[in-house]
Amino acid sequence: MIQTVEAAGRVRLLGEVHITSPRRALLTVLEEPAAIPGETALLAEAALAVDWSRPEEDAAWAHLQPGK
Q1: What is the pLDDT of residues 26-61, one digit of tens each?
Q2: C-alpha triplet 42, 10, 8: angle, nearest 5°
Q3: CA 67: distance to chain centroid?
Q4: Cα angle vertex 48, ends 54, 66, to 5°?
Q5: What integer pLDDT is reported at residue 17 of this predicted model?
Q6: What is the pTM of this model?
Q7: Cα(47)–Cα(63) distance, rounded to whole angstroms?
Q8: In the 8-state DSSP scheme, what is residue 15?
Q9: Residue 62: exposed, middle, or buried by beta-carbon count in 10 A (0-12, 13-18, 19+)?
Q10: What is the distance, to the nearest Å, from the Cα of residue 13 to the centroid of all Cα atoms in its chain?
Q11: Looking at residue 4, what is its pLDDT?
């Protein structure tokens, strides 16, 4: 069953959307699985890497690194 709900907070998009101010957003979850196992993770990797590669992220997780 396809489900559509209103999205709140931060949503990661895999494509570009140009808006000039905050807007309401709808998220549609499709019934069909990803065509390739792990496809969703692969598609999200580039978008997530932007956040993961920030110095703030390194600092936030530094306490979990050996020898820190």
Answers
A1: 999 888 776 676 777 777 888 888 878 888 888 888
A2: 125
A3: 30
A4: 55
A5: 86
A6: 0.40
A7: 25
A8: S
A9: exposed
A10: 6
A11: 94
Expressed as residue numbers, the domain containing 39 is 3-64
Number of domains present in the structure of the chain:
1
In angstroms, how far is CA 56 from the centroid of its own chain?
17
Tokens representing residue 13 in the block: 């998009």
> What's the one-letter identity of residue 8?
A
DSSP 3-state of 16? coil
User: DSSP letters along 19-60, please?
Assistant: -SS---EEEEE-SSPPSSTTHHHHHHHHHHHHHHTSHHHHHH
Token output for 3: 């489900």
Q: Which two tokens stand for residue 4?
A: 């559509």
- Structure token digits, residue 52: 């993961």
Amino acid at 53: S
Q: Which two tokens stand for residue 47?
A: 């978008």
